[in-house]
Amino acid sequence: MNDQSQSHDANDAERPAPRPFPNSDYIRPGIDDRPDLDKALSDEDKAAVARLAVRQKPKTPPAAADQPEVQAAAMGANAPVGGADEPVPDLESAFLDMRDPMVDANGYRPTKGEVLRMKVGFMGTAFFLAFALAALNITLVPQELDALSGPIGGAVALSRVLGVGILCSLVATVFFLPLSDHTRTPFGRRAPWFAAGTIVAVVFAFSLSACHTPAAVGVVWALLQIGLAAMLCALHASIGERVPDKFRDAVGTWRTVGLLVGLVFGIWFGVLMASAPAVGMDLCAIALLAAGIVGLLVIPRESSTVYSRAKPMKTADLLVTLRVTHPTAAWRTICLTRLFASAGVMLTIAYIWFVVRYRRGADAGLDVRATMTMAALMGLLACAMALLSEGVTDLLRASLDNDRLVLMVGVALAIVAAIVPLVSYTPVGLYVFAGIGGFAIHMIDDALQSLAVASVPQIDRAAEYLAVFNTSATVGRLLGVIVGGFVFAYAAVFSSVFLWAAIMFAFAGASGAAAIAYAAKR
């Protein structure tokens, strides 16, 4: 058998091959001679092909000022507790069309682990930012200026420092928002600004402890605010762009918890650093560095924007947070109410160090640690009452469905809180002020946010209106420190600041009443 099979194989090998069919040897150009690109191309060639494969008309990402959820995140940035429950009108929301609410603005669906990282990341970033800013604003910087210039000179210097810082922050925000909109990098358009802002903020926070004159403190503080403005712009925009609609409320809740806990820990940290303010400032710089690290490493990486189309930058882009076209009278009065309310809040909070320490007179100041302890207790009481106000305000709004009445009640309580220290400039009077003031300020903030959202005259431009609403709060804080500087420069008693705070709240009540009247005419 083996011999027969071998002979058959030999015969087959000797047999000539059949003639090919006509034209069967024709090679089709570009088809039969096409090489295997995976084998023929190098890694560099493959990368070049991938770059050339971009769509001819890539998507243009929306600007930060065009996104209502970005402005909603900014609205609650300074609130000790959560902001209003009123949903911000967003015509691009996935809940209003057939898009998937589980994906972000770029169409990416984050995993459960990435959603958890967003919650933890935004909460951690908010915690460290609130921790550092609470310690610096309420205790450490006022203590340093008090030591450098004395009671009256220190309070006036604090007004200059805070005023220049607010002005620099406002101008920086005006530029940073549109510039970040037009940034195109492999790391995204917000992450580079957040990283650069972190570096600037950390460097100048470390420099605070080396300042030995009020002028030096003012310059360093202003540069620090520029870095913080870049961080906050990128942070607020990231929440709107990277968190899917489905998880935005949950991420916002985690962030609010981080803000509140950071505020409380920062106030008490200032008490612990009463004997070593320079060390405390350096530790606050480390906290800002931790905020940057958490924001960049814990939160999932931002997608590349290299191939995203960018519109030419216009001068109008710089004015988007400063004005809106054809605002209604009701909208103007709402912004004016926010401005005066923010000025009253700034007058009562910014100078609490000097008000507490020199309640017996400029020549009979309290001990530094006793001052810090009392200021910290007042801060804790204000936060606790703000939490209580959160529940009470929700009940009032649910039962009465009248945000205007909530606003007027809050304004009345704020005026009462400011008058109490004028009548009783004692520890008891100051604690009563802190309790009622914390309750009233949160009620005002909650009602104003709801009224602002409800009074937007053009829903498709809600983001622009809310951006101006946030700017009015910044201008109000600037007005507050300007008035505070004049009060401490010319008033004989430090409690006079509460009189002007009551006046500001009265102006807020008057403009709020005007807003109610305009709304009734509509």
TrEMBL record:
GO molecular function: transmembrane transporter activity
Parts of the chain that traverse the membrane: 120-141, 161-179, 191-209, 215-235, 256-274, 280-299, 335-354, 374-393, 405-422, 428-444, 465-491, 497-520
Alphabetical keyword list: Membrane, Transmembrane, Transmembrane helix
Annotated Gene3D superfamilies: MFS general substrate transporter like domains (1.20.1250.20)
CDD domains for the chain: MFS
Stored Pfam families: MFS_1
Chain intervals with Basic and acidic residues compositional bias: 30-44
Region (Disordered): 1-44
Name of the featured protein: Na+/sugar symporter
Source organism of the structure: Bifidobacterium choerinum
